[in-house]
Amino acid sequence: MTTANATNTANNEEAIQKILTDGLKDLWYAICPSDFVKETPVSLRRLGHKLVLWRDAEGNPHCLEDHCPHRGAPLSFGIPLGNKIACGYHGVEVRSDGTVVSVPGSPGCKLEGSRPTRAFHLKESNGVIFMFNSSENIDEPPPLVLPEQLVSDEYSSFLCYTEWRGDYRYVIDNVMDPMHGTYLHKQSHSMSVGSRSAQFQLRDTDHGVIFEKAGQRDVNFDWSEWADTGLHWLRLEIPYPKTGGPGGNFGIIGCYTPIGPNIAAVFHWRTRKVSGWQRDAWRFLYKNRLEARHWAVLEQDRVVLEQMEPDANQREHLYQHDVGITRVRRQLRKLATEQLARGVK
Description:
- The structure is a single chain.
- The chain has 345 residues and is of the alpha+beta class.
- It folds into two domains: 110 residues, Rieske [2Fe-2S] iron-sulphur domain (Rieske Iron-sulfur Protein); 189 residues, Alpha-Beta Complex (Naphthalene 1,2-dioxygenase Alpha Subunit, Chain A, domain 1), CATH 3.90.380.
- Helices cover 24% and strands 29% of the residues.
- The chain contains five helices and 17 strands.
- Helix 2 crosses helix 5.
- The two termini are 26 Å apart.
């Protein structure tokens, strides 16, 4: 390989890793719980952006990059005006689509009517604000497609949100590794049974892949799913003993979003297929007996992942139990490579 080729390869690899670290473009992401955003503007860092979010009088959330197009002052220190925000520094008003609608200090200047500010479309569902991480300003985003467990009336769910120190991709790896439940979570009331060794297999789905134990189902944490519906989400189920109350298996839906290079926004919805009186019984039981146990299990994951070095994935010696992890990593890398080829960085 020539020096020039080696340099290009290194530059491409650096660009691919930058894309993956910040988060893929033109994709929906969960960015914060709904109660983070009120009428007063709030500034959040997500997906390589500094963002300002606020609500209008009807409660609709809006999002712009947190930089005034005039002098770069934070719009989050400004005044919300419905679907507009006025910069607190010089009063420049920016609409939620990124268009400057008023420059009070210099009416009619060329800044008025231009669209220099990055704007992002939001959707709100299941207690969370989702953002379409568009590579440029667009008028309409694609639909937000959530898994059945978050849209069907047959299911009930609770949101669990936390922020972990570490790369969001390590959280994805953790969910695509069912075998860790047998060891790390062996004291859990719901993960103390089943074989301590297993063979795994991959099964393609319409939107992704399921990684599952061969010959063991509905016993423990026996499978996990990664899906791309324009939103990347993961799913798993854990069978409950009778003491867990009425309903089907206990399910978890996960979405993970980079806040920065080594901090992740971690969203888990705990779900159960229940209806009628069973729904009320399950929700009461969850809040009064089960939620603390689930937080304890999640805390075990957090402690391990936060202790992993940023380059831990460069020190690995993977084996058959890790095929699900490598499959998802390759898919994410493929998407980042395609994004780079389109000239989107």
